[in-house]
Amino acid sequence: MNRGKKDRSLTTGARDAAAPDEAARPGRASYEPELSGGHGKRWFWGAALGLLAMAAIAPAAMADEVSLEMFTINNTWMLVATFLVFMMHLGFASLEAGMTRAKNTVNILFKNVFIISIGILTYAIIGFSLMYPGEFNGVLGWAGIWLQPGPDDMTAAYDPGFTYWTDFIFQAMFAATAATIVSGAVAERIKLPAFMLFSLIYISTTYPIVGSWQWGGGWLDEGGFYDFAGSTLVHSAGGWAALAGVIVLGPRIGKYVGNTIRPIEGHNMPLATIGVFLLWLGWFGFNGGSVLSADPEEVSLVFVTTALAAAAGVIGAMFTSWTVQQKPDLTMTLNGSLAGLVGITAGADVISPFWAMIVGFIAGIIVVFSVIGLDKAKLDDPVGAISVHLTCGIWGTLAVAFFGGGDLVWQVIGVLACGATYFISAMVFFLILKATIGIRVSENEEIRGLDIDEHGMESYGGFQIFSSR
Amino acid sequence: MNRGKKDRSLTTGARDAAAPDEAARPGRASYEPELSGGHGKRWFWGAALGLLAMAAIAPAAMADEVSLEMFTINNTWMLVATFLVFMMHLGFASLEAGMTRAKNTVNILFKNVFIISIGILTYAIIGFSLMYPGEFNGVLGWAGIWLQPGPDDMTAAYDPGFTYWTDFIFQAMFAATAATIVSGAVAERIKLPAFMLFSLIYISTTYPIVGSWQWGGGWLDEGGFYDFAGSTLVHSAGGWAALAGVIVLGPRIGKYVGNTIRPIEGHNMPLATIGVFLLWLGWFGFNGGSVLSADPEEVSLVFVTTALAAAAGVIGAMFTSWTVQQKPDLTMTLNGSLAGLVGITAGADVISPFWAMIVGFIAGIIVVFSVIGLDKAKLDDPVGAISVHLTCGIWGTLAVAFFGGGDLVWQVIGVLACGATYFISAMVFFLILKATIGIRVSENEEIRGLDIDEHGMESYGGFQIFSSR
Amino acid sequence: MNRGKKDRSLTTGARDAAAPDEAARPGRASYEPELSGGHGKRWFWGAALGLLAMAAIAPAAMADEVSLEMFTINNTWMLVATFLVFMMHLGFASLEAGMTRAKNTVNILFKNVFIISIGILTYAIIGFSLMYPGEFNGVLGWAGIWLQPGPDDMTAAYDPGFTYWTDFIFQAMFAATAATIVSGAVAERIKLPAFMLFSLIYISTTYPIVGSWQWGGGWLDEGGFYDFAGSTLVHSAGGWAALAGVIVLGPRIGKYVGNTIRPIEGHNMPLATIGVFLLWLGWFGFNGGSVLSADPEEVSLVFVTTALAAAAGVIGAMFTSWTVQQKPDLTMTLNGSLAGLVGITAGADVISPFWAMIVGFIAGIIVVFSVIGLDKAKLDDPVGAISVHLTCGIWGTLAVAFFGGGDLVWQVIGVLACGATYFISAMVFFLILKATIGIRVSENEEIRGLDIDEHGMESYGGFQIFSSR
Amino acid sequence: MKLIVAYIQPERLTAVKQSLFDSNVTKMSVTNALGCGQQMGYTETYRGATVEVNLLKKVRLELAVTDAFVKPAVDAIIKGAKTGQIGDGKIFVLELHECVRIRTGETGEAGVG
Amino acid sequence: MKLIVAYIQPERLTAVKQSLFDSNVTKMSVTNALGCGQQMGYTETYRGATVEVNLLKKVRLELAVTDAFVKPAVDAIIKGAKTGQIGDGKIFVLELHECVRIRTGETGEAGVG
Amino acid sequence: MKLIVAYIQPERLTAVKQSLFDSNVTKMSVTNALGCGQQMGYTETYRGATVEVNLLKKVRLELAVTDAFVKPAVDAIIKGAKTGQIGDGKIFVLELHECVRIRTGETGEAGVG
Ligand SMILES: Nc1ncnc2c1ncn2[C@@H]1O[C@H](COP(=O)(O)OP(=O)(O)O)[C@@H](O)[C@H]1O
Ligand SMILES: Nc1ncnc2c1ncn2[C@@H]1O[C@H](COP(=O)(O)OP(=O)(O)O)[C@@H](O)[C@H]1O
Ligand SMILES: Nc1ncnc2c1ncn2[C@@H]1O[C@H](COP(=O)(O)OP(=O)(O)O)[C@@H](O)[C@H]1O
After folding, report:
1. Ligand nearest D29 Cα, by number?
2. What ipTM was reported for this prediction?
3. Which of C303, C400, E3, E93 has its CB 3.0 to 4.6 Å from that of C404, i.e. a possible disulfide?
């Protein structure tokens, strides 16, 4: 069996020998583009600083057959990465709850608890099989219902980096992410059952199928598209669906009155901040785990690029919002860190720390204008999910070509192909739901808050919450 | 010296060779029940799906003497598991605080900070010695006051999976858990000193003594009881004490008026949700660390069974509460994930992923009816601790026999023997405290909130909190 | 190149052989003080209990050249420690926000998001080069702008414990900590730009320069000062700056009226408690990572000493506040755990578990009197940062001499030399800022809250917050 | 018509509401209040300093009633709120000049009910 | 002078404020309230048990106005608050004996404006 | 008897309470309110859009006093609350028809004290 995640076709010579996931993955066409141009750009900063440095560094080569010790440490790291990605779901729950109104908080929390659960379950039932079908036609494959480990799948024979179980659970945590992203954008007005059905369908079909094109070794991967940890495959998957949802649903009551935008303030900034810190934390596993082994050089490089991009995203968004809005907006700054993280996700292992910082900084700027621009277009996204995950997801994917040696043409093809598939399928699902069970709650319910009508309870029992909106 | 945690007497042939904790543990009677029936059940799903699969998988055998590298990675994983279990205490603190009223929040937070601290300290002073006394009569043993590492106890000679220090600190994090569980059930009415004394006594005597029967290699372990990570030994330990406490204390004022149940709503759902996510996170260490090594197959299997059970618990509780209550109750759904986690804890390493999902799903259903049933019996448990940790702890322990190859008779014996000891000793402690210093706060104090009378402060200074209960 | 963190000159024979960071660090004068007295003290507890024990324990010796497996596990552990230290920033953000008023919450959250970001960025640009300049005069060195990995810096040739990238990112997480500590003490009245500039300057100059004296292998290290993980180098760095800031700023309006102290209560105790738990969690990485390898004995010992000191700090502070204030104060108890943690930080690897407990317990007592004493001196520190990080930082540094075999004279020299440098430079920076852009917000702004004037938004939109202070 | 304003202990609200319902007074408005009266406050301590708290949590009721209902309403409030302990509360009765139901525009006694 | 007390639906506050401004009534005070009136409440369920909630969130407005402004103010409130649905609210008008502006000490009609 | 209603700046509450105590007025009720008066509001920005906030945080005091205490009480409030800046607040005095102490059933002036 040769399913397994993320065939990496874009690595520098430096790491080729060391990356066990590469060498030991069976049944993978080993496509290695000549990254001459990219290489030049990638190490430009180094050159500029008078260093030739890293391109020559190579840790002791790992054989195809790694030692049991190495297998164990790789697998352990992958499980650590797994629980870090799991934490992102609490991050999303907190961020979304914090940036919306108190009267819809139970609903948002509920959706997030639901999504991580249904995400793991459906991924076990069909998602993993759709996304990593093994040898397939490159467009649509299927490895069978439920998890099906083969005889050697708990050893390095499956993959030098992890067991079959680890592979599944790490990937499962990713899968739920896509739907969680949507949750924030459509918050405060979508009917609970409609949202639940949407997520269920989207993460069990669209997400894994598109994922198979790249990480399952499909046509995009064969072609030369590069998306290290999922700026496009995960984040824009959520972002496109969020955009479709926001279009179909329309804005929240009172957000746009005539031509003025009436901000609807989030109810709990500490909660939103907790969310962002947890997401940043989780990203060390999201990106760090996407190395698919504990390879010291690569994982540590990914930690550095991830942290620098996030930090620079904060500073970029801070300055931008300070300039545009006169005052430094906390929520924009929080979005800035996420923007930087999404931005570096596609190239965290091939973009140098210096350029990672630049990529993050630009993402931080972009996200502020994207939030403001979407508002101008009357696309009401309470938490900025579209700006963070879609806008910066695209930026990050393209940045691989600019700063990480990727092929711009293939990066664009990837963005468009995946984007079209995500957006159209999400649109279709939402429209079908709208036509059948309906997707928007009644005006009365929206005004009173979804917590009471959908769940019959309040999020802050006993607190005086005064809101005239 | 041959103390050390959790002699595992129930492992499949598949993992025998690989599990270092098994092979290298000295002085352990190596009892291996013939799990013919269990085996059949356990792999039923696999068979049903046409797979013979895993029973034949065996990673490269580890020798008695593991390499320093393997020892280091094992030990590192155990320390990671340790900090994950530590996080569960924040999880409990958040969950309990969120599901009770704002006027008692300081008290609850205080108790949780106290418990983790006193838990670690008493475990160092006497608990570890009581629980892992080395060779003993199987009922009560004692290895001496304070920590006493022997000459080789920092090397693989102690255990191939961890040093003596690691062993202690990992176990210490477990010990405090039992008392924390009680904290939620008796919340909003117990006197602070009474609770503090109770926890102190319970976690420094009852918990480690019963623990020694199984994980210390005592009579239950010799007999054939199986409790992988503590559905009975940890969770029901807390659950039984919670039950005793609730019985002795009586319900909160205003909860049961005549024959009607007047729900007393928790004051902070985001906090409760944070708590549950953190508990789920911590469980990856609670169960994953109970493997007692970083063994790739076993740890990754445990991650998968743990995650699937939790996810299925959410779905099970969601549907049940939606059916029974008309609306999907967030707190029930949160309890559902914990129910699934407690349910799989006893058999996380011997129940297959498919059956783990089923075990979790059933636990999710059970927990809802248990909460409602306890309320009908006028047993007032504000956070559902009894339902989650006791009811589902029993379910999980029995599930090892149904789906994991355990011996039903011994599972029942374990549940009853431990249960009786926990319940009776807790009852005795509570009754003595009631007769001496008193355990329930005055009516006035209960109405005004424990925060002001026990701690002289408020949890949300400046917030308007309106509560007529 | 021979930069790299923390030359350890105080280790017992027991661990010498095993500690890879020691043996393999090139270009380090290997200064090993005769710890006769210290040894006696250190193992006193053991002797008292009739054990000679650990001094004789030596794990299998690690060669200078570690295996790739060992390098990988070491590096992986260091990255885990890195993300744990990262979490401390959320811990600080939560604690500070929780212990101040709701009207300044956005400001506090903003500052914390800013600090971690600017901390990482400036550390990449100049901090790392200032702190670990390689061979230098022992007082001030410089390795060049931006990160400059050499040809072998991603292998064990750089350090057997980590790659260059790991070294940087782990250290970067530390750097930001110092400024975060200040943030809490000057909260609710400092102008945002003034604070931002102060942090920027302080963490990019004073912190790394003083750090180089010890961890960079400078004069303090050569002399015989010992500070394992930074009671002085990190915590007192923040504490001294906090003290300077509090002196220059003056107290918050309404805190001291005539000779009475009018407590200004924090607005969110659950948030403060979350903060403390996360800090404690992070400390497992802060101290555990300072081992600079995954060495099983040393890392597990550090976990034990860290946990026992924190737990004992809680109990110490609890009893002290219960005695002094009549009632057990949650915030004091929370400070107690941090006090214990700061207290053990300097000697977590050389103080035995028993004495670690004593060190933590004393720290817990000290912190309560320090908080009360500072209040008496009208030094207004809303979160107790000075008491926790400065007072207990000094205590912890001296405790190495008392219980861990350090040289008292050099410990005092270290405390004084670093302290003077920190305090004077912070004072100068604050006074310059005061004279130029001003550091205190207007009275009106302070009364209305910094959130509205500095950020134009509220932290709890929709909540009724009633505050007459 | 009269406007009755009553301050009661928060935990008596359910009982007061019930006894008002029993007296056929079903319309009322409730607000959160802090009260300072004969009842002594309590002392909080925070980080070693003490603070006297003498504003205690109360509930403020406001009921517009026709003159005929003043006595029954006042009695009902007393019935529900009285425990005999200091802090039980106060009832104030004000002259109500006019009353309008927004939905229908009805005024006077028609508006009150 | 009169003191107008009005209970309205929270979400109508912006509209009411606007229509008061249009009528040149620019001073007012707003409080959070819970109301129990003709409007039915709703049922919450929590952990399997149900609870009847009949105190609904309302906003309480208080306006001191000169006699000449009573009618315009009442009309403006109705204009902003009326949706025709049960729960729209009530307006109460009380006699105002005196009014003082703290800053200047002005009293009577001068104090109101 | 009169019912005094006063809106003051939140941060003046302690001072007002003190000066009322000094004048032997020790019973009062306090509520949280939002006020819209002569004082200008401020502008918040949230995610790039601006919002005008003109309801500012105030504290509402309610005191029932006997006629003899009206003047001292009003003066005490002014003394404690006045800073001379816009936003200092307003005092309203209403006729109080009746007053009942729930605990004892005392009415009239006996009930007020
Ligand atoms: N004169 C008053 N003016 C305004 N509110 C009052 C007055 N007297 C009492 N109250 C309110 O009633 C509450 C109960 O008052 P308290 O003096 O304790 O009652 P009693 O003396 O009847 O036991 C107070 O907390 C306060 O809110
Ligand atoms: N008699 C009354 N006394 C006090 N408040 C009242 C009274 N009648 C109505 N209210 C307030 O007005 C709100 C709206 O009342 P409701 O009966 O629903 O209005 P309507 O009958 O005009 O539709 C109530 O929730 C309550 O707050
Ligand atoms: N006519 C009024 N009706 C109701 N409340 C008022 C009225 N005038 C003022 N207030 C209250 O008093 C507060 C202070 O009013 P403001 O006009 O700023 O006072 P001043 O003009 O005396 O400086 C307002 O925020 C509002 O709460």
Report:
1. 2
2. 0.92
3. C400
- Per-residue pLDDT, averaged over C289-293, amounts to 97
Per-residue pLDDT at F52: 80
Q: What is the pLDDT of residues E84-100, one digit of tens each?
A: 988 899 999 999 999 99
Q: How far is the CA of C128 from the centre of ligand 1 (A)?
A: 65
User: For the residues D14-27, what does the mean pLDDT come to?
Assistant: 92
Whether B257 has its CB under 8 Å from any CB of chain A: the answer is no
Q: Do C332 and D47 touch (CB under 8 A)?
A: yes
Distance in Å, alpha carbon of C133 to nearest chain A alpha carbon: 17
C-alpha distances (whole Å) from B204 to each of B118, B198, B208, C44, C442 are 9, 10, 7, 25, 55
Q: In percent, how much of chain C has pLDDT > 70?
A: 86
What residue owns the CA closest to ligand 1's atom 23? D86
Instruction: Using CA coordinates, name the residue in chain D closest to F101.
Output: D90
Residue identified by tokens 């004692």 is B142
Residue B325 is part of which domain span? 68-455
Please give the full DSSP string across C109-149, using - where no structure is assigned: HHHHHHHHHHHHHHIIIIIHHHH--SS--SS-----SS---
Count structural domains, chain F. 1
The residue type found at A129 is: S
Q: What is the CATH number of the domain that holds D47?
A: 3.30.70.120
SS3 A308: helix
Ligand 1 nearest atom to the CA of residue F101, by list position:
22
Residues of chain A with pLDDT under 50: 1-63
Structure tokens at D22: 């029993």
The C-alpha atoms of residue D75 and residue F84 are separated, in whole angstroms, by 45
- Which pLDDT value is given to residue A14? 31
Please tell me which residue, B151 or B85, carries the higher pLDDT value: B85
Give the pLDDT mean for B121-149. 94
Q: Which residues make beta-bridge pairs with C166?
A: none
- Cβ B137 vs Cβ B219: under 8 Å: no
Average pLDDT over residues B362-391: 97
The pLDDT of residue E91 is: 97
Q: pLDDT tens digits for C427-437?
A: 999 999 999 99
Restricting to C residues 113-152, those with a Cβ less than 8 Å away from any Cβ of A are 113-114, 116-121, 124, 144-152
Can you tell me which atom of ligand 2 is nearest the CA of E87?
Answer: 18
Residue A271 backbone phi and psi in degrees, to 5: -65, -45
Q: Are B277 and A90 a contacting pair, CB within 8 Å?
A: yes
Distance (Å) from CA A357 to ligand 3 centroid: 52
Give residues 273 to 302 of C whose Cβ lies within 8 Å of A. 274
Interstrand relation of B260-261 and B256-257 (parallel, antiparallel or unpaired): antiparallel
Question: How far is the CA of A185 from the CAs of A97, A244, A371, A379, in angstroms?
Answer: 11, 10, 12, 10
Residue B449 distance to chain A (closest CA, Å)? 13
Residues of chain B contacting D13 with CB distance shorter than 8 Å: 468
CA distance B83 to A166: 20
Mutate to test the interface with F, among C252, C457, C468 (most CBs of F within 10 A): C468
Ligand 3 pocket, CB under 6 A: E 27-29, 62-64, 101-103, 112; F 7, 35-39, 56, 58, 86-90
pLDDT at E97: 94
Quick one: pLDDT at residue B64?
A: 54
The bridge status of strand F28-36 relative to strand F56-65 is antiparallel
> Is the pLDDT assigned to residue C2 strictly greater than 70?
no
Residue B157 belongs to a domain:
yes
CA distance D10 to chain C (A): 17
> How far apart, in whole angstroms, are the C-alpha atoms of residue A367 and residue A384?
8
Average pLDDT over residues B101-109: 97
pLDDT exceeding 90 applies to what percent of chain C?
Answer: 81
Which CATH number goes with the domain that contains B121? 1.10.3430.10
Dist CA F43 CA B23 (whole Å): 70
